[in-house]
Design brief:
By secondary structure, this protein is of the alpha+beta class. The chain contains five helices and seven strands. The strands form two sheets. A five-stranded mixed beta sheet has the order 2-3-4-5-6, with helices on one face. A two-stranded antiparallel sheet has the order 1-7. A hairpin with a 3-residue loop joins strand 3 and strand 4. The termini are far apart.
Amino acid sequence: MKEETGPARAQRSNFSFRVNVGHLGANPVKVTLQASDEERRDLALRWGVRSVEQVSAELELGRWKRDGVRIKGLVEAAITQDCVVTLEPVSSTISERIDALFVPEGSKLARFETDEDGEMVVASDGPDAPETFSGDAIDVAAVCEEFIVLAIDPYPRADGAVFEENQPPNEDAETRPSPFADLKAWRTGGD
């Protein structure tokens, strides 16, 4: 089997832990995840960060309603990114609570309420609709990854790093005519 490298490899993480939904009973199941060195390197590529030092989760999976699953717990990560101003390394920690519901595809619980025009009705203060899963398993590591990615700072800054507002003017910009110069000349009748 050919091993993928580069961007194709970065699109798929080996950080995975599939839980068979059929094995979940009335009592919740506890799941502990800890990403390996190789998984953390893959995650750093996927997330576009300098490095991932740690990813762990303490989860509880249980039945929800008849055929749904509820995942609750805490996911934590330690990452290093590049400062958007200085490109210095910026370390940060992420700690996110998870409370997510999943139902099988086609479940009545996954259908959205619609109004008479067919528009979806969503209450801003109501609970989130359950997500769907296909097959007989849910990848709880992928759920954890989703919560971490949403918490990553898209513009990390090193302490004290600020953009300089008084930068020297770009000489090319001064010698080029304004893109509106022809329009101004046309409006005033000049050349």
